[in-house]
């Protein structure tokens, strides 16, 4: 019962959250299946398909009456995913009502509807967490809108940016993910009432009305057609989780790198009790950042299984569908863990603006672009670049300072102020991102 | 020059299309880069950043003046992706204008803008092809709305559906992909004007106005902030292609299986000249279907590279970005090939309704669900199921016919008409899908 | 504690085995870590690095004395993976010995050595299971060495093979996997004693001797150099599991397809209590086969995470290494489940040789290759093929029998015996595979 | 013809090599197919299956006589992969010999044998390149055996290692890959002679003798049984390429990070003509390193397609097999490009030992492990660690130097020499790796 790391008391917290455990515990899943059967019975009674008394008896069952160990035993005996639960429910129901539980529904009706409820819950938690992260990022972006630091490309110091500009780029990506979520959720999580092969033949002429009521009862959208074989719905959700996880991993990866002591511009907050290393007592490791990257790798790989599963045979394909039984909950654990860790990361980030300034001054010839710009005005852009390529090669090889080499090409005036970082349009772009996000957020709050 | 299968004269047509070659040939890419530089020059001249005469000279260059072999030589010499082209352009430009070509732009400004133009073109071609496929599917769904065939689950014959119901499920998935495209495209393909590290510092105070004009000039959206490090944009497009490819592969996989001679319900159309096998002259192979499945696997794997690439360092990461240079065109070739093949498949599908009827009669006890329904009314659902499980086990083991075994439980009347397939709500769902799609399509045409 | 499907009482058995639970339960992992610390203490005492009394006290601890809940609490408090366990061990040790537990070792020394022990155990279980499966396959191959059935290519009936030939192809692949295992295992699972950054500096001049003794103590190979950052070792194992899983999935996929009722040549054995469907009582689903395919997809995706993790930073990279903590146990659960299911599949396979004969007679013009051979002798190979392409097109389109069409090209004698399946060199190849495997197996048993 | 980046004159060199182009050009592939057909004809003539005169005529054909454009046209007409070539060969052969070309062989016999020849060539080139890289790494490991630098874990400065120790870890991984290659190659690349469905029925009783001679003729191993459906053979090769690519990418990733100007310990060699950036003239980018990482990502993803393809239907599955037609050559281009770039990287690496020493002194409290060791002798390991955790937290927060804080716990003598890096057993491990590799290499040279 604790043979997967998600369920480990010692290590589970790195891979899941209390909310993901509440959502995916065995009891919670059985309870969800029970509530689905209750909604089905209710809709069927309202349409006269089963007696009202049966629906009421089914609705009256509490998860506390369901002996999960017995469900497990009977599931193994019959090698059927639902008969265990049906049998145990029949035990606690009057005989007649027992015949009406799971009336005409297939396993996939229950399991897909349950999966859609899970996806709906996850979507809502993900949205909440993305909004929370976005808020922290917007604050950071504003706070450090004009704080100069080195921009880096190809891992090398380049020209100046502001830290707020960097953060605004993260926030903009988060905003796109909120947009994806808002557009995608309508496709991800409909109810399923397919019956044996999808045409809901068991329920007679009221079948589609039954599906409409059932969907309303469980609180999900009513699909235009059975989707037992159309797994693009959960696959799109899984791919969305992949984008979110990678978004967060990019932020975490950046913190990991900027926290390198040789750079030292930002750091994860650590609590006083945290121990970095038991062999190197000075160590302070960016373990939260690392874990967000790790989670993203696992999430991406699970999303790939879901996407692969879109190609299945005929009206139902166990090879695809059962894969989702494993993958969706695991995806749920990991994406919530990732969001939770990322929230702590961006909420607790320590920013060392002095170090940023020092690095700007020390490394990377952050003046080179500005110098190129100025020299371009004199000699042309590409001529300037050739010249400066030569100049900087000489800096590297002989150490001759730039100014000295340039003295016959540029006046002292031309060379003035080169050490003042030019932030370009960075701050304006911060404003654009922040303003758009704040407007959207306010509109949502007042809606 | 023909060492990748996409470029093979013999086999390339299975992996690409004339349109994908037109889009991604070397000449075409160089031409696109040239046009981007022309748009940039125009916008810069309009803002007074470069002289009007330079912009005009740059605009006047034709791709025919660009010696691609020379571009290649200089690219290798400098190990820089753009200097080759810039040098060759300088050769054909007046000295002054030569200094203003690619003025202050980085390679990624050009290559990202080019990639966005490619994505925009691909998106438009994909949309056209999805609409074409949808049209054929809607026709098929209507035509075979009431044509009974076996529904199959777990690879086994189950209860009846109609062929139109199956096709409507495909069409509904295609419609969702059109929806995804229409929502996603605004995020996928903006212009890029980032400069050295993203803050467009080279261009001074007019930088954002320059970007606005440049984006308009190349016909792309203007992003709120630099996205050199935010690769969720192309990654989302790649994942979308994965969903489309899997959608098509599901259709193709179904044709492959239903074309099995033992089933024989549908077949790919083949031309008279087609040869199936050189060792088994009777063979008629579903090679188009197979190829659509194969393409989907490659497309998924390329999409995974794009998604992985979302996590990069700092303001530009060559490890990610250069991967896109390879992956995006290859993805484009394959998705267009897949759409083209799938269009031929669904356009030429041969449907054998007699064989469908025969299989319904011969295999799968397609009456079993209906029998369960009727017996359920007498003895209860789960009791009926237990009983029928026993009955069908006896059928398998002893061959005793169902009716004979049931004679003491059901009257002759109860057993009547069991061999008439019950299509359930299948045809109604076909109508729901077709109606919604036709409404959307008509609205679009009149718009 | 049961929020991952592996740990579900109801469904866990599809994804794991009792042996995988025994190996990867929390208690089992803590016990393994404890035994590693005991081996370390012993080796250190023998070299005089810690007092003999401390080593003895550490060796005397039983897992029953370890309060796992307390380990969990302290792990969370310190955010350090080992301090929880160390603290609890110190609680039960004399003060002095408490200072010597985990003396100079890092978390990764313990966790990598533990992972190697897990890999070693898994390797041994996998080998046992592969041998068991191979045995059943060799028996089947021999038993059905000369049993004709349709060979199929591109999903279409082709020319005859024997069922034994098909099975021998599976067995040959299993044999290659045993070969891969025997060659690979020496690389997969060495001990780790790296210390802080890999050079084992804490332990002074005896460091390498200590590692030699420690490796012997835990029963693992002694690597030439620290491999904290060389994750090709576990990655190779994961990729090997991928090959095994796909090998088994190919067998399962074939059973799934041959069990299609329209083909009906083989079937999974089902027990009397098994229920196929609760809506279609006649159904008999190949659920074991499906699950083996599903498991292979998850296993492949986990192996991809391990391979991706080979690229890490510097001397230890948490992003890679922590991923293995999750992935390796999950891989272990799934590969053992896959082997167990596959063993049941091939052990219980029901072969319907009558149906094989019927299908040969009914479908696929299995005579076409032989006819091509005979006609080739008269008119040349390619001329014969063109002719026969025409003939069979006419069969499809007009129904004119082959013999009738050929009467002016071939004599009655030429056409005689065409309906006797030609098994070619199939049976000889069965012998080659079986003989080689039996020789290897006997050599192993007498060794 | 240049619509894939591999075939681009401008950018192809980043993704392929002259050798990969020589191996995979269209002409080269057609020539290989021709030589296979010649070997087949020869073996058939020797066994009296075709006339000697036909074999000789076929053997006499030169690739120069084959009109590839015509092959392409006829391939498209027939939609058959081989009929185009067969037809063109028939054009240049006497009628009789024309009937004997590709006598009884299927497309897959030719294409699989061709793929095995490609794999054999690639394997040999990979081995050569791995040996070349290993040599350079062994030299580096020896040269910098005792050169101290910071070891880093979790991206943070830790304790000292030597640069030679780091390099020896790379070399050890390369050596394992050479070992994998030497063991795997016997499985990767056998000849194929399967005929229609695998039992080689066309060729009569001499079929297996024919296969033996054919395999010898093409210079490949003779498999025990047909492997048209056993794709573990090429999949294992692809996974091997994945391990090699990741091995190289780990080295490249390390160079990328150590070349960060803030670290500056190693750098890629650049030629005088190389230009790093056209907007930041001072930039020197690790583009070779980046590309090696990028290539590994694509290679891994292609290997995943091959592994997925192991699960196919029946005796031949076009969905799998045709995927290999695309994937294997692309894999070949990329792995050779990766090896070539990696060879240049390790051959041209610039090592700044001064910077290593400075970083050791400046960052990371590289004395902390040694201090822990010394204090452990006084107060016990874990007590020492707690104490030092406190000490270093104070260093971070208040700046109080370590020595000052420790003055009441350790004597001046205890604190002496802490700034001399302790290399531990690192140099000895370098020796172990280098010695083992040199012995293996010398044994090979004298063999």
Radius of gyration of chain A: 29 Å
Strands of the widest sheet of chain A, in order across it, are 1-2
> How does the major sheet of chain A shape up?
2 strands, antiparallel
SSE string of chain A: HHHHHHHEEHHHEHHEHHHHHH
Structural class of chain A: mainly alpha
Number of helices of chain A: 18
Shape of chain A: elongated
- Strand content of chain A is under 5%
Which chains make the largest contact? A-B, 101 and 101 residues
Fraction of helical residues of chain A: 55-70%
Report, as a whole number of angstroms, the end-to-end distance of chain A.
45 Å
Question: Total number of β-strand segments of chain A?
Answer: 4
As an assembly, this protein is homotetramer
**Mean pLDDT rating of chain A:** 94
Low-confidence stretches of chain A: none
């Amino acid at each position: 019962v604790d043979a997967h790391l998600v369920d480990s008391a010692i290590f589970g917290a790195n891979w899941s959250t209390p909310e993901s455990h509440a959502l995916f515990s065995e009891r919670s899943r059985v309870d969800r299946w029970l509530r689905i059967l209750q909604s089905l019975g209710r809709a069927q009674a309202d349409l006269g398909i089963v007696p009202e008394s049966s629906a009421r008896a089914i609705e009256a069952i509490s998860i506390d009456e369901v002996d999960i160990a017995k469900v497990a035993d009977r599931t193994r005996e019959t090698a059927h995913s639902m008969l265990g639960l049906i049998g145990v429910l029949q035990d606690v129901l009057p005989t007649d009502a027992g015949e009406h539980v799971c009336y005409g529904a297939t396993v996939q009706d229950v399991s897909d509807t349950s999966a859609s409820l899970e996806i709906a819950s996850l979507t809502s938690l993900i949205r909440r967490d993305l909004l929370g992260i976005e808020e922290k990022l917007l604050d950071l972006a504003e706070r450090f809108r004009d704080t100069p630091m080195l921009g880096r490309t190809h891992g090398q110091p380049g020209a100046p940016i502001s830290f707020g500009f960097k953060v605004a780029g993260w926030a903009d990506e988060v905003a796109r993910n909120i947009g994806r979520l808002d557009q995608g959720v309508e496709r991800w999580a409909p109810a399923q009432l397919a019956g044996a092969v999808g045409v809901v033949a068991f329920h007679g002429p009221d079948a589609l009305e039954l599906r409409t009521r059932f969907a309303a009862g469980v609180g999900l959208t009513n699909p235009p057609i059975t989707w037992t074989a159309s797994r693009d719905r959960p696959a799109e959700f899984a791919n969305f989780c992949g984008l979110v996880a990678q978004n967060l991993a990019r932020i975490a990866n950046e913190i990991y790198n900027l926290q390198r002591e040789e750079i030292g511009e930002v750091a994860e907050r650590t609590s006083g009790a945290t121990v970095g290393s038991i062999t190197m007592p000075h160590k302070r490791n960016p373990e939260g950042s690392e874990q967000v990257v790790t989670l993203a790798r696992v999430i991406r790989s699970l999303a790939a299984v879901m996407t692969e599963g879109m190609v299945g045979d005929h009206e139902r394909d166990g090879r695809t569908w059962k894969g989702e039984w494993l993958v969706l909950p695991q995806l749920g654990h990991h994406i919530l863990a990732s969001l939770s860790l990322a929230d702590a990361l961006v909420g607790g980030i320590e920013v060392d603006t002095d170090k940023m300034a020092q690095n700007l001054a020390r490394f990377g010839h952050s003046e080179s672009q500005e110098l190129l710009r100025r020299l371009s005005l004199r000699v042309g852009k590409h001529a300037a670049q050739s010249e400066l390529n030569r100049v900087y090669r000489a800096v590297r090889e002989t150490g001759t300072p730039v100014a000295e080499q340039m003295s016959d090409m540029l006046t002292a005036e031309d060379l003035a102020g080169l050490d003042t970082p030019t932030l370009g349009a960075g701050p304006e772009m911060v404003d654009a991102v922040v303003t758009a996000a704040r407007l959207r957020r306010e509109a949502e709050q007042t809606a």
